[in-house]
Every structure is written in structure tokens, then in C-alpha cells.
Amino acid sequence: MARYDRAITVFSPDGHLFQVEYALEAVRKGNAAVGVRGTDAIVLGVEKKSTPKLQDSRSVRKIVSLDTHIALACAGLKADARVLINRARIECQSHRLTVEDPVTVEYITRYIAGLQQKYTQSGGVRPFGLSALIVGFDPDTGVPALYQTDPSGTFSAWKANATGRNSNSMREFLEKNYKETSGQETVKLAIRALLEVVESGGKNIEIAVMTKEQGLRQLEEAEIDAIVAEIEAEKAAAEAAKKPPSKDSLV
Amino acid sequence: MMELDLSGFESCPLFPGGVVADHGENPLAAASFQLPACSDFDGFQKDAIQMTKPAKGTTTLAFVFKEGVIVAADSRATMGGYISSQSVKKIVEINPHMLGTIAGGAADCQFWHRNLGIKCRLHELANKRRISVTGASKLLANILYSYKGMGLSVGTMIAGWDEKGPGLYYVDNEGGRLKGTRFSVGSGSPYAYGVLDSGYQFNMSVEEAAELARRAIYHATFHDGASGGVASVYHVGPQGWKKLSGDDVGELHYKYYPMILTPTEQEMADTSAA
Prior knowledge:
- Chain A: It comes from Zingiber officinale (Ginger).
- By secondary structure, chain A is an alpha+beta fold.
- Chain A is built from 6 helices and 10 strands; from the N terminus they run H-E-E-E-E-H-H-E-E-E-E-H-H-E-E-H.
- In chain A, helix 2 crosses helix 3.
- Chain B is about 35% helix and about 25% strand.
- The longest helix of chain B is centred in the middle third of the chain and has 22 residues.
- In chain B, about 35% of the residues are buried.
């Protein structure tokens, strides 16, 4: 099989594109990222690995905006992400110029996914090693949307999804606990999903909320800490409620 | 040898495969094609444009009102002083919700409107919703701009009804694009504007608006030799466009200004009828 992973353009006999699969592996090793769609807000959360003391953490933004109403978070190769984000930002403005309308979330997702696919079918290039979570509000209908793309160039819409490290556990958690939420509840759901796989604490999580009125808002560390504390308290209360009233220990 | 700098064009429409560098000496040089060798290139260019810029012999008009957009046009085609046709369709149906008008070179307008229709359909298929009038007019304007100076003659109005309501844009071969509520294009437009502007009200019924448009076209065909034939009137509403009428302007003349026969002429008319 090793002969079929030299150049991206080659299929293996059993129909695999190995370079694409290796790219997916790179995504699986990237930081955890989660996205949750609420009725009036969409929340993106990303795991923040501990910042070295001398690093200026503000220069390492993992959740970025593509336009005033679209944001993106990703898992995988960060340098590839930068290139993709720049192209997407240009496309957002180009679309505004040619049709005098902001992009819809689906349009820009289709563009990014198309770009990722192009690099799986060209000579001498490798696929982008990242999966992106793209959120935003459609400019005309105001409907919130969450999409995910992956290195193969496929994309689909989600109510909530996770990618990167331990994404399976996060997705399981979301499948069990997802319900239509709004405002702060959506933020809590996203943080709870992240906390499943990340060390608790505001300095290990980066959260951003996208609303129609205010666009993208990054939460402060203190805010995140407060919500985490709330979540812990709720968890503790739930545990206590489950435990039966204390009996005398049997001898 | 002067070389035109096309490095700004990512994909020049004339060279779909990308512009190819001529001599191949310096592959890093900007792509270009050769221009004619003459002493006064600017003068030559001006003459060429004058030669290829036929006056837009026609009358078309469109205006937005309460019930949507009315689009009207004559149907005469002229080659100099020769009337080549009295039955040209100057209102083209881009899609069931959008109309375009033809003024200038018929071939240019017909081709680019059809091309626009294709682009609009592709947009619909890709984005699962109809393109806006704004978007469609911008697509056409950008195409025409990329052919600026190459002799296209297009003076068109794009009229339609989209999610934002009725929309009307004027687009021409210079690359200009104007949003507006009342436009008339062509050699008969001054006459049409006279009637249109003085009779226009936003709150008109569809019949009143259609009659205003019809009269405006009629008066333009009366005074302008390059306009005539049939006055067509279309209406674009929320459900799409509908052709309202197509009246021969000669008959319209006698409808608006019925002949008052002198007694002798009346007698002659009666006896010949008897």
C-alpha cells in the first residue's frame, strides 16, 4: 500500500486516496474544536493548549472571522488554515462586489470545501490538513447555520459538531445532550462538550459567540471561568440528587 | 511594439485558457497581446470606437411603480436610412422573473442577454435561490466592462422582481451601471422621457402604467425616424413578467388622434363604402 501514497493523484487499488486519509489523521491530532447551533446564537469553542510564558497569546487566535457575519474555527495544520482563511476572506469580499450581497454560510463553505477538493486532484500538491467549522447567519433570512468541511472537500450542515482531538467523545456527548437552546444555554452546551475532553478552566478553552446583532464576540477568560464554575456546580448538584440519602454503613 | 498589460485580468474572457505570453523570452513578464503599429494610437483608437459605435436607433423604456416594473419598447431596426425590420423583439426574457431590453447592436444584446440568462440559471442551481436583480445586472456590467473599448454596443435595462421587491438597472457597454426608477434608452428616449416623466406617478394601476408606457413609445416613434413598428408593453410583478400588449404604432396614432374628415372627404369615404 505504501506505493499508493507517493503522489496525491493516485488511487489505491481498493479505492483509497491515502494522502487524504493521512490529512484526516493530521486533523485527528489537532486541537479539539466544537460548534453548537442555537436558535439565536452559534457558539464555537476551541481547546487552547497551555501558552508558553513568553508568547503573546493574543496573536494566537484560533477562532477567526471571515466577514462580519461569518466565523471559522478549525482543527489541524494551523499554517494551512491561515492560507485557507485568507482565500475565504477574499472570496467573501469578492462576492460582495459582484452581487452586492454578503455571502451565505453555505456559499462560503462550498467555496472552502471546493478549494480543499481542488488540492486532492492536482499534481504536486498535498491536501489541506484541516477540518473547518464554519458558522454564521444568512444575510437575508437571518437563519443561523453551522457547517463542517474536511480535507477531502466534503461539507455538510450540522446542529452541533466537533472535530480534532477526541472529537468522537465530544460528538457522543452532544448527541446525547443536544437540544434547541438559545443565548447562554448554547454557550454552556458548547463548553460542557469541550470539558469532556479538555482540562477544566478558562485558560484552556477559547469560546466565541456569533449573534446576528453583534457579530462575533470572543469571551473573556473570566467569563469562561464563571460559566465553567456554573457548570461544575450544576454537575455537583445533579450528582447529589442522584445519590440516595445516606444510609448507615452496613457491617 | 506596445504591449497591453493584462496582468490585472485573472481570466480574460477572450482567452479562456489564460493569456499566453507571446515571445516566450521572459516567462515572468506580464501576459499581453500585440497592439497595431501606428504613430498615433490614441487617435486610431478614437476613430475605431467612432466607427464601431452605432447610434442606438431605438426607443426602450422601463419604470418602477407600486405594482412592479413596466417595460416597453418599439420594434424597428435600421441600417443607416434603411428600415431593415419592423418586428424586432427588443424585450428579451432572461428568466421568468427578469426582463432585459435591447438598444444598440442587436447581436451583442441578444448574445449577452442569453449569456446572462445562463449565468442566472447556474446561480440558481448552485445557490438554491433566484439571483437578485442587483446581482444579475452586476454580472452583466462586469462582463461588458471587461470588453470596454472593443466595440460592443449595448444599452440595456435589466428589470425584475426579487426578494427585495421590484428592481430596475441600466447597464451599458461603457461598463456603467445605474440603479433607478425611470429609464429610457435609445435615439427616441428624449421624446419618451417627455411623456413618461410628465405622466409618471408611483401609485398607478397596472393598466394606467401600461397606457403611459404605450403613449411614451408612440410619441417617440412619431418623432424619431429610427423608432417604429410595434409598441410592446410588459409588466413584471411578484409572480414574474407578463406581456400586456403589442400595438402597431400606426394604429395607435389614429387611436390617439382620430381623423376628423372634412364634409367632402366624409362624402367620398361614405360613397366608397356604399
